[in-house]
Amino acid sequence: MKTREFYSKIEFTNEGQLSLFFLGTGSAFTKLNYQNNILIIKGKDHVLVDCGTLCPLSFNDFNSEITNVKNYLITHSHADHIGGLEEVALSNMYITKRRPKMIITDDYKKVLWKNSLRGGLAIRGELGMRQKMTFDDYFDQIRPEKIKNAPRPFYNANVGSINLKLFRTKHLFTDRNTWKNSFYSLGVLIDEKILFTGDSKADPELIKWISEKYDLEAIFHDCSFTENAVHTSYNELKKIIPAELKPITHICHYNDGCENKEVSKDGFGTIVRRGVYYDF
Predict the structure, then answer these.
(1) On the CB side of 214, how many CA atoms lie within 13 Å of its CA?
(2) What digits encode the pLDDT tens for the residues 112-131?
(3) Of 6, 11, 119, 276, which residue has the fewest beta carbons closer than 10 angstroms?
(4) What is the pTM of this model?
(5) Mean pLDDT of 41-49
(6) Between the CA of residue 199 and those of 140, 183, 186, what are the distances in Å?
(7) Among 119, 113, 12, which Cα is nearest to 71's?
(8) Count H helices, E strands: the chain?
(9) What is the sign, positive or negative, of the torsion defined by CA atoms of 131, 143, 280, 194?
(10) What percentage of residues in the chain have a pLDDT greater than 90?
(11) Alpha carbons 72 and 55: distance in angstroms, whole number
């Protein structure tokens, strides 16, 4: 993995390498590091993973327009991951006159629309008309294919040259500490070599399953430097990541003020930085 600094505008295409650009690296209530949303770029293709409340502002900070994003993947329905979608939908409808694509299952498409997006997007009222709108008026669905014989829901999707495999995570669970009883949330395996956990509590079974099945080059793991019931804490992360994987494990979704934590002393790779390209 190599890193490059941001220059001028966000790259939506490159020379063919797999690149990750972090629009933000912070936790849900960040005021400094923006939210943990990433742009995946490879050749002529790109996908934005999550679009939180601050995501459109982050694009603007980087002299770029979020309306240039053509493909989306949403991991779950918390505001730091979906809060910018209403602006995306309306900006594309009224300004670009096109519908971006979204990788989304049929089930989650219904949940995202009914429980989150419908309130601000269901009615369109030009020239005194009250026209009822649906998800499909704003986004074109890319339906991922379910992969059989996996230990938990596991899906495959392709956006041009980018391969994405989606899996359930343990995030905000209720009575039992399992993915089955948790808030719907996905992690992403990118090109079968980059593990992006999305939002998850400590999940050693997931790390074991993915790392044994795929030859990982990097893990980008969400991490809180305070103990909580929603995300993997740093103390938990030190326990669940095997020693051989720690050097390729990089920490994101962290609390404001934790940008300079010396995680390398515990064997980890880096604290992920906003506005940096990670090339593979």
Answers:
(1) 17
(2) 999 999 999 998 877 556 68
(3) 119
(4) 0.96
(5) 98
(6) 25, 10, 8
(7) 12
(8) 7, 17
(9) positive
(10) 90
(11) 12
Give the pLDDT mean for 31-54.
97
| 176-181, Cβ contacts within 8 angstroms, sequence gap of 24 or more | 177/201, 179/152, 179/203
Count of other CB atoms within 10 angstroms of residue 229: 9
Q: What is the spatial distance between Cα 232 and Cα 242, in angstroms, rounded to a whole number?
A: 15
Cβ 19 vs Cβ 42: under 8 Å? yes
d(CA 229, CA 255): 15
Q: What is the identity of the amino acid at 120?
A: G
Using CA of residue 235, residue 240, residue 243, residue 244, what is the dihedral sign? negative
Beta partners for 158? 163
Are the C-beta atoms of residues 268 and 246 closer than 8 Å to each other?
yes
Question: Any idea how long the chain is?
Answer: 280
